[in-house]
Amino acid sequence: MPKGKGTYGSKRGRPKKETIVLKKSKGAKEDGKITFKEGTLRRQLKLKSGEKFTKKELAGLKKKEIGTKFMFRGKEFKMTKLMKQRISLGLTLMKF
User: Fold this and answer.
1) What are phi and psi of 39, to 5 degrees?
2) Which segments of the chain have a pLDDT < 70?
3) Cβ atoms 70, 79 nearer than 8 A
4) What is the distance between the alpha carbons of residues 86 and 91, in angstroms, rounded to a whole number?
5) What pLDDT, on the 0 to 100 scale, is given for residue 28?
6) Kindly report the CA angle at 9 between 6 and 11, in degrees rounded to 5?
7) pLDDT computed for residue 2 by the predictor
8) Which of 47, 73, 67 minimizes the C-alpha distance to 83?
9) Are 77 and 69 in contact (CB under 8 A)?
């Protein structure tokens, strides 16, 4: 597709990256940084942009083993290592 036509080369569909700076802990040489893309777990679980998670839902998903199939809001998914990491990060960020 040529440039300027359609969404080819467009950045509109991509999630923006966010960086969180963690405070320096005892014995650490420098502050830690975590970079992640906004809305990736929501997109992976096929939720609409206005829908939100609850801590209870994410805690239930975190207990699933990698490789098992599960139902979430009427849709079937397979737990992957990346999904489990995103769920863990989501729960951590919900604590703040």
Assistant:
1) 80, 15
2) 1-34
3) yes
4) 9
5) 55
6) 100
7) 47
8) 67
9) yes
Taking the C-alpha atoms of residue 89 and residue 66, their distance in angstroms, rounded to an integer, is 16
| Residue 52, helix vs strand vs coil | coil
Query: Which pairs count as long-range contacts for 55-58, CB under 8 Å and 24+ apart, including other chains?
Result: 55/91, 55/94, 58/87, 58/90, 58/91, 58/94
Number of other CB atoms surrounding residue 87 within 10 Å: 23
Contact 15, 43 (CB under 8 A): yes
For the entire predicted model, the pTM comes to: 0.65
Closest C-alpha among 92, 85, 16 to residue 44: 85
Helix (H, G, I), strand (E, B) or coil at 40: helix
Give CA–CA dist 6/2, Å, rounded.
Answer: 8
Tell me which residue of 25, 19, 13, 72 sits closest to 45, measured CA to CA. 72
Q: Three-state SS for 34?
A: strand
Q: CB under 8 Å, gap of 24 or more: what pairs does 20-29 form?
A: none
